[in-house]
Design goal:
alpha/beta; two-stranded antiparallel ribbon; about 240 residues; globular; nine-stranded mixed β-sheet
Length: about 240
């Protein structure tokens, strides 16, 4: 069976690293066994493999910003562009979502509405009803999020699948097998609270009450279901030779 590639573009907060890195968080949340995955820590300069031998690719979040145009990020974007054009199933999470959008011709920059953090309410677009990852889900559902930059304009030809009160592109699909999600389907409630605690001072400076955000954190199992559906779709395509 072809493996999945986990592209690690960053590390969790120091206070949360006892739970492993982003690659581990995503692998566990996606229901993948260690034998089914390969890791590429592109932020450390690790090379990316040939896309031809993979079932699918998941791209992590990061503390970096896409607009910094870091060398490793630009190299990863070029690789992702080729993989998307070839039809390899791709799922970008947070930074990965933004990097995919940028690689495919979308626009990424700081969100003019400010920081989005905590358990947010996703509103699914009509197009989500027929999307393989979102079909059958309620029209609104909770998801965990933490970000400053966002996809201001999705890639040409992309379909927006979800929004939130602070972000008009919480999820998109490009082509048949490339998805980006701004939210974090791999986060547990404990991880989300850890990020809010760590950003308490910044939130206060921006006029937010971190205690209120902490109290509003709740489980987001349907967001995690999106992640697992991606794995299922990628496996099915690999099995049928799509």
């Amino acid at each position: 069976m072809k493996p999945f590639l986990l592209i690690e573009t960053g590390d969790p907060l120091p206070s949360l690293r006892r739970h492993g890195g982003f690659g581990h968080w995503i692998r566990v949340a996606a229901g993948l066994h260690g034998r089914e995955v390969r890791h590429a820590r592109v932020l450390d300069g690790e090379p990316l493999p040939s896309a031809g031998g993979l079932a699918g690719v998941l791209v992590s979040g990061s503390g970096a910003m896409v607009t910094e145009r870091l060398d490793w990020s630009e190299r990863t974007a070029a690789w992702l562009r080729e993989a998307a054009d070839a039809g390899l199933p791709l799922l970008g999470i947070c930074y990965g979502h933004q990097l995919l959008a940028d690689a495919l011709g979308g626009q990424v920059d700081y969100n003019p509405r400010g920081r989005e953090m905590g358990t947010v309410e996703l509103e699914l677009a009509d197009a989500a009803a027929t999307d393989p990852l979102f079909t059958g889900l309620p029209s609104t559902l909770p998801a965990h999020a933490t970000h400053l930059q966002t996809v201001l304009a999705p890639p040409p030809g992309a379909t927006v699948l979800a929004r939130s009160s602070l972000d008009d592109c919480q999820a998109f699909r490009w082509g048949e097998a490339t998805w980006g999600v701004q939210f974090h389907p791999e986060f547990s409630t404990g991880m989300m609270r850890g990020y809010i605690h760590a950003r308490a001072d910044a939130l206060q400076r921006e006029g937010h009450c971190h205690r209120s955000l902490l109290q509003a954190v709740r489980p987001a199992p349907l967001a995690r279901r999106v992640l697992r559906r991606f794995v299922h779709q990628a496996r099915r395509r690999a099995h049928h030779g799509a």
